[in-house]
Amino acid sequence: MSNRKVDQEFFRFGKTLTTNLENDFRKLLKSYSDDEVKSAEISSLVISKYSEKHRFYHDLSHVSALLMIAESFREKISDHDSVCLAIWFHDVIYQPKNSDNEIESAKLAVIKLTELNFPKSVLEKVERMILATQKHDASGMDQDGKLFLDFDLSILGTKEEIYKKYARAIKQEYSFVPDAVYRYRRKIILRRFLLNGNIYYTDEVRALFEEQARLNIENEIKELS
User: Fold this and answer.
1) Chain segment 208-220, per-residue pLDDT in tens
2) pTM over cut 0.90
3) Of 4, 100, 133, 216, which is most buried, counting CB atoms within 10 Å of its CB?
4) Ramachandran sector of residue 89 (left: φ over 0; alpha: ψ -120 to 50; beta: rest)
5) Is residue 37 packed enough to be buried (19+ CB in 10 Å), middle (13-18) or exposed (0-12)?
């Protein structure tokens, strides 16, 4: 998969995308449960959460992009369904003013998937992957978990034009933060990525995005300064 294909997926949003995503999500849920009514309720809830007005980046286009990347890496993933479920639920609760979004997203995932009688092993894996996004720490994660975390940061390695849209979208989500404070905190977050040995945990994703991600981050830090 090329960076260009990923670039094309981010910030692609519209009624057709929403319908297609919801249909795919229902199909995934129904593959584990014959309760069509409950599957429809859960998919509608999740879609509505990602369609909230305060979301400028953490929306359905973000979900769509990660699902596309996961599909392109299908042969590298041992439990594709669990990775897709983690993608669907990892930002389902997103309030920029709160610090427990990942915890609440994981809780909701477990509650809703339990209603559909998903296997305990799937619940635990999905919960573990979502919670790992809080600090993007892959400690104790299997290969699927590491790939999932890398997919979530794939936006960092997109071409400059898409990255700048992402940076603007994040700033919009934090519009309640004074500009000087935002710039200061954002630079701290970005510098942490550069201080790590590698931004990405897996060789496959690193080969695609690492070089461009570092360049994008360095450029944003300069602009923030």
Assistant:
1) 999 999 999 999 9
2) yes
3) 216
4) alpha
5) exposed
